[in-house]
Amino acid sequence: MSPENNRAWWGVLPVVLVVAFSGVVPLMTVVNYSVQDILDVHTRFFVGFDWYRETLRDPRFADALLRQVAFSLTVLAIELPLGILVARAIPKDRAFTPLLLVLIALPLLIPWNVVGTIWQIFARGDIGLLGVTLNAVGLEFNYTQNPLHAWLTVVAMDVWHWTSLVVLLSFAGLSSIPPAYYQAAELDNASAWQTFRHVELPKLHGVLIIAVLLRLMDSLMIYTEPFVLTGGGPGNTTTFLSQYLATMAVGQFDLGPAAAFSVIYFLVILLLCWLFYSSVVKRDA
Predict the structure, then answer these.
(1) Which of 64, 143, 193, 280 could be disulfide-bonded to 150 (CB atoms 3.0-4.6 Å)?
(2) What number of other Cβ atoms are within 10 A of residue 157's Cβ?
(3) Got the DSSP string for the chain?
(4) pLDDT tens, position by position, 222-237
């Protein structure tokens, strides 16, 4: 590559510096807080890794982590197949297809706190369409008192909110498949399942990796929607890591333990995403 072409990297340098400053500096600040006992603005004591040990030994952290992982795996298991199924059902060459894609993408445009409010009303047993309907058929639905109902409502809310992302990514991947592949499958008398298994799924591989990584990271960081919908209850049924952290940092103002919790939380998300990506890359190698 010529020196003239290499000079183009100077145009990217300001962006790199801004991202590094906005990402690394806050992270280092949190790491600094995590090894100190902060009493007030001017009084703090170095405690080493005490807050980390306390967090890892806290049964509430382990319970919240298990709930978080269970929630992430549940929504991924639902949203990925459902998103692919919906994407395959969308016609590619119709005049109304762009409008249909816009309608499917509407849930993605709704702010997270509004999503929680919508489902808070939608699932109420006295006035909500979902709650009233379920009670009318004799299911006695009440997400504010029944832990299972609360869990299922939070999962349904996330599926409604984020399946559209998987649909749009999958539709883009399916639209990029040349017609010749489908013609060859038709000549071989391949069934719909065989066409999906040997033609569409391999071509969706890269798109699905992106979809899983995006949804995995986002589901591990979910906070606003379940907080607005259930407040983490009933009990701690829908209290995830982010809510536990917010209570510790904002509600109790325990900055040292909250900082240690934040670092561990960040490492958990990083580790899970790295394990997924590494397993996919190793399998494809």
Answers:
(1) 143
(2) 25
(3) --HHHHTTHHHHHHHHHHHHHHHHHHHHHHHHHHTEEE-SSS-EEE-TTHHHHHHHH-HHHHHHHHHHHHHHHHHHHHHHHHHHHHHHHS-SS-TTHHHHHHHHHHHHHS-HHHHHHHHHHHT-TTT-HHHHHHHHTT----TTT-HHHHHHHHHHHHHHHHHHHHHHHHHHHHHTS-HHHHHHHHHTT--HHHHIIIIIHHHTHHHHHHHHHHHHHHHHT--HHHHHHTTT-STTTT--HHHHHHIIIIIS--HHHHHHHHHHHHHHHHHHHHHHHHHHHHHH-
(4) 888 999 998 888 888 8
Give CA–CA dist 276/271, Å, rounded: 9
Do residues 82 and 166 make contact, with C-beta atoms less than 8 angstroms apart?
Answer: yes
What's the predicted TM-score (pTM) here? 0.85
pLDDT in tens, 85-137: 999 999 888 888 889 999 999 999 999 889 999 999 999 888 889 889 999 99
CATH of 60-284, one of 3.40.50.970, 1.10.260.40, 1.10.3720.10, 1.20.120.640: 1.10.3720.10
* Straight-line distance from the first to the last Cα atom of the chain, in angstroms, rounded to the nearest whole number: 29
